Amino acid sequence: MTGPVQVTRAQALAWRMGRQLLDPVGDMSAEDVVRRLTAVPAQSDVELAVRTRRQSSRSGEVHEALRDGRLLRTFAFRGAVHLLTPEEGGTYLALRAAGRQWELPSWQTYYRLAPEDWPDFRAAVRDALDDGPLTTDELGASLATRPRFEHLRPIFANEPWTLLKALAWQGDLTFGPSRDGTPTFELLTRNPRWAGIPDLADAGPRAIVEYVQAYGPTTPQHLQYWFGEGLSAGRRRLQRWVEELGQRLAPVVVDGAPALVLREDVDELARTEPTSAVRLLPAYDQWVLGPGTADPQVVPPGQRSVVSRGANLVVAAGVVVGTWTVRDDALTVTVFPGAERPAADALDDGIARLAACVDRPLHPTVLT
């Protein structure tokens, strides 16, 4: 009887780079790139994160996809704003809402909303947004016309974000177009592509499959980081969903350590050759946020604080080996002390890819 397929870390990272459209670069639309990554944090340079993964692109396509409803902006992982696709986004909102934080005693005391008040509160919010997007002040003013919710007006005027997150997680609203730099919120159901929020029992296994497809080979620790810490999904739920997937997941061994991939991907992973590809990625790119900056296979432990603070990333063969900055047309690449300088041709290719994505030639200086 044969055991699990064994691969090297270099193979695993090369395969993941392919899955994430970094090497080879993909030919998908902007929304399909987001779909492949499952989510893209808005705190990143979203345009660069998406364009880096597309052979052909132009400035503004992410904004157009948001405007057309092919992408949506909402609160998701760790309560932060992310870009999701309307077809799959409900899967992650289902997991995020499973904890029902709005029923905590602290929430009930602060917002003066009991669990039984929430159905009517949510209906009032949807009714207020029925005529179109509103700022938080406007939404609070509309709710204040109902005596039952008048006490919430100061909250919507000053610190509405926690309350808005709970509404977003339940699929009531999403970010609308900014108005003079001020965010607005609109009904999620106005987006014809919105597929709704699935049952948690279906959403959990589906979310794990989508994550493993993009970020495998993965471990239970990765799943706990992404779903347990990121969406408060709960360790027991995660374990149950993994068990329910059964033979859909296959064990592999990466440099002696056990991991999981989809069974359908095992052969492709085993055939994958290591890559020397270099990519210059924006800060907070999903390449590092997906597995987590604590993953030493991707982020050297001594450089974790640099990555977590928002440095732009130089990734070689799947590992963060340095940072980069651009000022006008001057690009400075700084290789971490002790890291091997990337091969010249691979680095040149990575710089050319960045230049194509920022629509101007770049004159590089490499510091080691």
Give an overview of the whole structure.
The protein has 368 residues and is of the alpha+beta class. The chain has 2 domains: 1-274, no CATH class; 278-367, no CATH class. The protein has 17 helices and 13 strands. A 5-stranded mixed beta sheet has the order 9-10-11-12-13. A 3-stranded mixed beta sheet has the order 1-7-8. The chain has a 3-stranded antiparallel beta sheet with strand order 2-4-3. A hairpin with a 2-residue loop joins β10 and β11 (319-327). The relative contact order is 0.14.
Summarize the model shown:
By secondary structure, the protein is an alpha+beta fold.
Which consecutive residue ranges, at least 5 long each, have pLDDT under 50?
Answer: none
Give the helices and strands as they follow along the chain: EHHEHHEEHHHHHHEEHHHEEHEHHEEEHE
- C-alpha end-to-end distance: 49 Å
Name the structural class. Answer: alpha+beta
**Major sheet summary line:** 5 strands, mixed
Q: What is the strand content?
A: 15-25%
| Lateral arrangement of strands in the main beta sheet | 9-10-11-12-13
Number of strands: 13
Radius of gyration: 22 Å
**Global geometry:** globular
Mean pLDDT: 97
Number of domains: 2
Count of helix runs: 17
**Helical content class:** 40-55%
Pfam family, one: AlkZ-like
Protein name: Winged helix DNA-binding domain-containing protein
